[in-house]
Amino acid sequence: METLEGSELCFPQLLNTSCRKPVRSHFETMLIYILLSSISLLTAVLNLLVIISISHFKQLHTPTNLILLSLAVSDFFVGIVMCFQIIHLDGCWFFGDLMCVLGQYIAYIITIPSVGSMVIISVDRYVAICHPLHYSTKVTRKRVIVCICLCWTWPPIIQGLNLNDALEQPGRYNSCVGECIVFINYIVGLVDLIFSFIVPITVIVVLYMRVFVVAVSQARAMRSHIAAVTLQKSVKVTAKKSEMKAARTLGVVVVVFLICLCPYYCVTLTGQDNFLNASSAAFVICLFFFNSCLNPMIYAFFYPWFRKSVKLIVTLKILQTDSCETNIL
Questions:
Q1: d(Cα 213, Cα 220) in Å, to the nearest integer?
Q2: Which has the closest alpha carbon to 148: 48, 52, 64?
Q3: Residue 41 maps to a domain
Q4: How many angstroms separate the Cα of 164 from the Cα of each of 128, 168, 179, 316?
Q5: Which pLDDT tens digit goes with each residue over 201-245?
Q6: SS3 readout for 272-307
Q7: Is residue 242 assigned to a domain?
């Protein structure tokens, strides 16, 4: 009986203080590990392809693609960090209390720039569609780099306030050995909620709604302008397709963002659980991370240049001399 109980503990040698592993069937455990490992690997590979493509080919060194590069770098590291979340899915943390705190800190500062990059992308697209004549003067390489730097510098500062408190006595809130619990300060958590979720989602929804309205109005204006032409029927179909495409893009961006991030921030918003236990909150955390796997599909796979660059990368043609000068657009 002792052997059976010991096998269910994170640290069998510590019978009185060790945490217990959650009870799961072998099939369920294997399914979870295979699924999350696949997502982690896919996230890292897809975003690495985006990073190599934009970094290597000179034609892709545009302000818009710099934002995509920032997004891909953040999401690439999210794929790496997911490995630690997978290890912790059995309810046991084997790396010590200090690494528990640092792990939470690192996970935060590499996921938030992804959200910030999405906001910059929405601003970029808003200016490009709603103010096309001023795009080249408003969206410059220098301004984009400044915005990207802000996305990567303010998360460490915000989370650093909470880190100081957590490092005073790591693991003080753990109820057993092998648990990884980090207490979130109320003020820091509120600031995180406002600037990491409420403000970004508001900006994204407002700007994309504006983009959608402008796209639809342009399509209708074109249809009205050519209404007297004999090809009126085909123009009408084309206009409707444009409207549907705009609606689809808006829906994909906003819905995916909401589905992946809402569960995590809803827990924070309700304040029902200020002690984030990675074992009990595995689903919402992994869903939060899964957004990083979908980002390269949404923001990069829709671009023809990405498919062409992936082909050149896979066939190792980028190793040829002057391959960076290849016409990729």
A1: 11
A2: 64
A3: yes
A4: 42, 7, 20, 46
A5: 888 888 888 887 887 776 677 666 665 554 444 444 444 454 455
A6: CCCEEECCCCHHHHHHHHHHHHHHHHHHCCCCHHHH
A7: no
Q: Is the Cβ–Cβ distance between 254 and 278 less than 8 Å?
A: no
CATH code, 316: 1.20.1070.10
Closest CA to 64 of 129, 19, 8, 157: 129
Is there a domain that residue 240 lies in?
Answer: no
| Segment (H or E) for 212 | helix 199-225
Domain membership flag for residue 3 = no
pTM as predicted: 0.80
d(CA 39, CA 47): 12
Taking the mean position of all CA atoms in its chain, how far away is CA 137? 29
Tokens 């290849």 belong to which residue? 326
Question: What values do phi and psi take at 326, rounded to 5?
Answer: -60, 140
Cβ-based neighbour number of residue 242 at 10 Å = 17
